[in-house]
Structures are given as C-alpha cells and as structure tokens.
Amino acid sequence: MEILQLLLGGFSVAFEPMNLFLVIVGCAVGLFIGAMPGLGSVNGVAILLPVTFIVPPTSAIIFLAAIYYGAMYGGAVSSIMLGIPGASTAVATTFDGRPMAVQGNADKALVAAAVASFAGGTISIVLFTLFAPPLAKVALAFGSPEEFALMMLAFGTFIGLGGDDIPKTFFSIFIGLVLSAVGLDVMSGEPRLIFGDISGFFHGINFLVLAIGIYGIGEILWTIETSKGTVAVASATVNVQRIIATLGELKKSIKTMFMGSFIGYFVGLLPAAGATPGSIMAYGMAKTLSKNPGSYGKGNIDGVAAPEAANNAASTGSMLPMLTLGIPGSPTTAILLGGMVIWGLEPGPRLFVEQSDFVWGLIASLYVANLFAVILNVAFLPLFIWVLKLRFTVLAPVIFVLCVVGGYAPTQDMHDVWLMLLFGVVGYLMRKLDYPMAPMVLAIVLGPLAESSLRQSLMISHGSPMVFFERPIAGVTMLIAALLFLLPVFQAIKARIKGVNQGNAGKLGDNSAGS
Amino acid sequence: MKISRKMAFLPALTLSLAALAGVSQSVVAEGWTPKKPVEFVIMAGPGGGADKMARLMQTVIQKHKFSPKPFIPVNKAGGSGAEALMHLKSKKGDDHIVMVTLNSFYTTPLRQPALKVQPLDFTPIARMAEDTFLLWVGKNSGINTLDDFVKAAKAKGNDWIMAGTGRGGEDELLTSYLNRTYDLNIRYVPYKGGGRVAKELVGGHADSTVNNPSEQMGFYLAGDSKPIAAFTGARLPLFKEAPTLTELGQPFEYYMQRSVVGAPGMSDEAADFYREVFTKVYNSEEWQKYMKDKSLQGEFMTGTNLQDYWTRENNNHKVLLSKIGEIKQ
Amino acid sequence: MRKAEFIMALVLGVFSAYLMWKSAELPIGWQKGIGPGGGMFPFWLSTGMLICCVWILVRWVRRTSPPSQSEEPYMDHQTAVLIGMVVGSLTLMIGAIHLVGVYGAVPLFFIWYMRTLGRHSWTESISLALITPVVTFFFFEILLHITLPKGYLEPLFYPLFELFL
Asked: What is the ipTM of this complex?
C-alpha cells in the first residue's frame, strides 16, 4: 500500500506542467536520436546529463527517462522503416518489422511496435511495483554459471531464427562470437586477434559497426540489386481507419505481448544482461510457440509485438540491478548511474528505503514517458511514412551518409567506418548465398558476456563443466537450452521420416527442415 | 536542451558580433583558450569509478563555465586502458584532448611493451585525488579481523576466491601482495567493473574483494559487506573500524591515482589553461563533497610535482609487477 | 550460383583457419592456476567455423543446399557494374573524409550519386548536397556534441563553434 502511495506521488510529480513539458520535449528529441542509425539513448542521455544540474533532480530524472524511452521507440522506427537497428535491443524488431514495411504495412508495424511497447511498459511497471525488492535477491543469486546458462538459452533461440541452412546458421553464430573476441581479452588483458597490428582493433568490434554495415549498407546494396537501380517507391499509406484496423488485429497478439513482457522483465532484472537477450528470447519463444512459425520473418505482426514488448519491459527491469546493485545493464543505465552520483544518490540495497521518492519518481516518470512516446510516435506516423515514400535514389545516399556518420559516432574512429563498409559488402555477398545474418549480429552482442561468464565459471570450478548443472538455476536453464538446441534436429528427423514415407529420401528432408 | 539552445542563440550571436568588432583582443590577452570542443577521453567504460568521476568533472566544468568550449567525454575502455593510451599517443601535440587516468597508466604499458607507450612523456595536467583500497568480506562470513581472514583463507586454500577488476591491475597486485605476505593461495577471478565485483561478494559468489570505497559503499551502508583492513597510511574517516595494514604489522600502502593528462607535446599555453580549469574543479564545492563522500585522499598536484610523482609510482609498479611475474626483468 | 557457393565456402574456410592460427597466439588450453587461456574461446569457435565450412562443402558436393543446385548466375553483369559503382563511390567518399572531412566529402558524394545513379536535376542534387551537411552539423556537433572528422577543413569551423557553442 505504501508503495502504491509512493508511486502515485511519483505520478503527481511527473504531471506537473514543467515536468510534463520536459517529458514531451525529451520524448521528441529521443525519438529522433534513436531513429538515427548508430545513435541511441546513450547519446541523448550523456549529453543532457550535465544540463540536468540546472533543473531540480526530479525533473532531471523525468527528462532523462523521456529521452530514454523516446530513443527506444526511435530504435524501433529505424528498424522498421530502414531495416537498420538503431540499438542492439531493436535487432529482433527488424525481423518482421522490415518485411512489413516492404509490403506496404509500415504503419501497421509502427502501431504494433507502439502498442506492444506500451503493453510491455505497463506490465513491467506492475511487476516492478509488486515484486521489486524481493527480486533484487534473485539478481544477487545470479553468478557467472547462471549467466552462462542464460546465454546458452539465448543462443538456443537463435537456432530457430537461422532458417534454411543449418551449417550456415551455425557458421553465422560462430563468426559473430569470434568477432566479439577481437580486441583485448577482458580476463587476461592481452591483445587478441589484432589483425595486421592495426590499433583500431584494440577496442574490439562494436556491435553497431557490424549491424550498420550489414543492415544499412548491405541492405541497400540488396535493394539496389533487386530493383536493378530503377526508382522503387515503397507503397505506404497511413490513415485513421488503418490504425483502428491494426488495433483490432492486435487483439490476437495480446498473449504474445504478455509473454514478451514477462520474458523481457525477468531477463532485464538480471545484472549485466540488459534488454537485448530479452528481446531475442521473446521473439524466439513467440516463434517456437506459434501455430504458424513459417510466417515469422515474413511480416508477422506478432514478430514485431513480442520483441518490442520485451525490450520495453526489460528497460524497466534493468532499473532494478542499477538501483539496488549499482550494476548497469546497458550503456544508458551506466550513464544514469553516473547521474545518480552527480545528484548525490548512492545505489545500493538501501536506496529503496532511503530514497524512495527518487526510486518511485523514476519508475513513474518512465511510465509517463512511455505513454507520451506512444502518443508522439502515432503523431509522427505521417512524417515517417513520408520518408518511406522518398524516391530510392534520394533515400539511398541519405542512408549511406547516416551509416557513415553513425558508424563513426560511437567510437569516433574512422577505422570503424572502414570496417563497417567491409562488413556491408561481405555481408551482402554472403547473404546472396543464404547465409543468415541475424545470428551473427546477435552473437557479437552476447559474445563477450558468454565468454567471460564461461571462463569465470570454469575458474571457480577448477575447470569442471559440472558447475553449470549442479547449481539449481543454472541447471534448469541449461536443460531448456539443450532442448532448444536439439529442436531442429528433431524437426529434421521428423521431416526425414515423413520424406521416407513419401518415398523421397534424403534430399527433400534437408530442404524442408527449415524452409 | 533544444530550448536552452535557442535561447542561448541570440546572446551568442551578439557576443560574437561584439568579438568581431574588436573586443576579441581582450580574450587573446587572457591566454590560450580552446578553439573547438575538447575531447575528454575516459580510460574506462561507462559506469565505472573513473567514468562517474569524469562525468562529474565535465558537469562541474559546464555548470560553472570554467571553459568556453565544452568537454566531450569519450569512453575508451579497451584493454585496461591500452586503447586510450594509444589514442592519446597518436594525438601528439594536440591541444584539444585530455584524458582521465588511473593506475593502468603505469601497469598497462609495463605489461605490454609492444604498445610502445611511454606514460612519462604525456603532459601532466592535474592529480585530482587518490582512491583508496580496503579488504572486504561478506557480512555472514564470520570474519571480523585480518587474522580471521588469514585463517579462513588458509583453510580453504586455492578455493578461496578473490574477485577483482581485470587482470594485472590494482586488484590483482593487492591479491598477490596478500598471498605473499600471509602465505596464502587465494585464487583471483577477474570481472569487468568494480560494481560487478562488489555484487559477486554480496551474492556469495566470491569470498573477498579489494574494492574502492565508492564501489562497496551501497552494500556497506546496507550492512551486506564489511571492511577488515585498509591499504592506507591512516584509518579512513568513513571506515574507522578497519585498521590499516601498518597497524597490523605490515607497513604497506597502495593508492590509485585519479589524474588528468594531456597528449605528449601539448603546448605550454594549453597545458596552463587545463591546469587552471582543473584547479578550479578541484576547489569546487561539488568535487570536495565527492572526495569526502567517496573517501578519496590526496592533495591537488600539478606540473613537475606530478611528473615526479609519476616517476616514483612508475618505478613502484615495475617492482610490484615483476614480483607477480607479469613482467620479466 | 553453384560456383559462388563453392568459392565462398572455400574462402570462409581459409579465413576460419587463419582465425584459428591467429587465436593460437594466446594460450588455447588450460593454464594451471589461472584457468582457460585467452585464446580458448576464439580458437574453438573458429574450429567450429571451419567444421561448418566443411559441412557446407559436403552439401555442395552432394548438391543438397539450394545454392549448390542453382544454375542461375551469382550476379549478372548489369548488377555487378551497378553494385561496383555504388561500393566504389562509398569507398571514395570514406577516403575523402580523411582529407576534407565529412562536410567536404558528403556534398561531393551526394552530387555524384544523385546525378549519375539517380539522374536527378542539378537543383535537386545541389540543394540536397547543401542541406544534408548543414542538418548534420547542427544535429551532431551542436545538439549532441559529437565531433565529426573535418580533415584539412577544420580551421574553417572555428568561427562556427565560436558562434554556436
């Protein structure tokens, strides 16, 4: 009851005129920052942090929360419209969001993303209010072995994403993981895979460099090829009737949104996991549990709803390890953590008790920001659709320039821009031969986490892999992961048996395994 | 931001018009000022102690308008600071870049001679503080003194886990010191970031840590962890209960510098400008409060004093590192 | 397509082997008292990559994957020229950033791309070539404080910083 009061107090603060104004401005700024490939909430939050010294801390938090959420939506917008995930959390949104836009349903995808995000935000805030303090203990119980098991679970869901060609899917996961190992080894501090002694490899290969290369440059090359350079205009419309119709369609996705929100929230709670594994796992689960998994990746509205609900829920969830453990789950929460220091707040288990105004004010402002982000998102729909209608020969150079600038911005190193071009071209050539790209991009995000948790666990256990099975949470998670890994094998066997029954051995079995 | 920008536009315009009209000479007379935004490299990832500190400095500079152009933080965390050091080295003679640094300023070049970085060539700007280290254990460990610790760690032998940040850095140096001095066989497990290390202790995944006060503060205040010894000369005001190693019969002190450096070969005028900026930051109310809250020690230091301090510390680290076999002599 | 599948798998296989060799610069096994070596993770994963490449080649020989059955050309002449031009111009633009910076290279790229590949009018091309850098400057440098490379044109920007920062 007391919590509810505090939360309501937070809401009343968030709705003061000055703060409301900051929410709207923050959401709008965030939306554009997030929609820019290569830029994410981290840029907006980092720049505005010093400014928040001028306004009172509560307003500052509200402002930052607004940018955070605005940018999250912006990420979905760029995933759907340009096919370039603005942040790693939005990778899964491209899988079905982009095909929908290509089919002329960009408005539907955008509305679905907005509604699902809102649902994710709402459900997670309810969960946060009810269970936050006890769940902080769960987060503490999560050590390296549990973290590795979780990573395995995330990789298990990738297998289902690859599709047609099993060796190529595995290849894609492996190369992503190897690329993530480039740079300096976190554990030993030694330089590793520094190709040609180029100093640019010391900071490793940023996820954004690979993602912008493949989804930005690679995707445009792909479009140029399919359109043969002719002026292709995506058909796109937006009007009130279509929005209402989409809302009706989304009724069927309610279950998916719920599931996505739960997965996202719980994965987000875990320290250092962040929203990316949550969104991928939500997508993977939605596809696995769906009656019609074949329609995923081809513009299924559920494929947009699941990851979007999950990544918003995870953003709320990831506030918990930040506030109670002082461990940021994402660069953005890291900067917010820095902000707390500037405002003189000490993250830790006592924060919920001693700074309850701050905690619930933050949660309430996240929610208000979420609400306004939805409203703004719908209000800007015509603008987004207008961009889609630009002629391709105008859009293409604009996107190229955005890619170059976006590849440069995170590390401020031209080396990364060259690397991005290389990934774009090679990725395009590989994609032509059915090498799936998504597992690679996701693997580079999860690689460092998977590696350090694996090695830490093995160090603790003197090298015995049993450490992953003896501990209850890790053991159960590993078991589920193993089942997911074996799923395509079962499917292949099933298909092969079917094939044999039809008198078509071998060949057909392989082909129907994934396609 | 958008609004404040618009509002700031008009005065800025009038100001620059005035400058064009000849007032600019008075600006020149004041000495060198940056002509473009200053790149403020942080030798650590977002969220760490160095990062929080750098962002506080940036905020103070911006709030009090200590610099006419903004300081723009850029994180270069790669390889215990190797990336940041290489970057700064490549900016030889650049007057628009400064970096926040810590002890990896010495240890990384010493451990990786292939980088060919000479930290002593960098331009000394300011030492803002020295961070302190304490030996921490969990609240339910039943350990209250260093003797208890030594006994417990001996009993567990190689299964006693010390969590720390990175390999070959401050935490591992201290662990190896404890191993040598008290004849222990503690196993060191590196994690990314001090916050994570603190959580491993409280979550029961590690037996002890050598965190900075700022990293354990939240848990300490909640009673989840306790300090049993301090690696300082005198007891820390915030942790009166933790005796120093010197008191316990082993004279040993270890600190981590929190300093600001410029690229090698920075012009004297520019270095003077930055020294003045950081003197103002050091004396600001916000910085002083931060130092007190986070139990930071150390006087402000600049110029040749700082250069001497670096030379001294660099030699210390050479000895410490060769003792744990990280560098061969 | 069949030939391309073979060549790609071969090239990637060689690349995997190179990665294995490169990873082996660090210890790949168990280091006593320290734990798994720094090269372990990338080494075994590159080995996985190599195995996948072999697997792909086996499927190529047995003609069980779709690209190994396809007789269509991997890339026809027209596409190759088009893609080559786009990639070439991108390379030139990124190269030019080192010399004249983003604000020099981007307008040139726009004019070239829109005139040659898009066949747009001069008015359209030039106006876009002018608008984009201006918007970029205000968004990145002024609003977000992200400094973009300016090459030899950098001194030209000092008065702008004086004005807006």
From this structure: 0.93
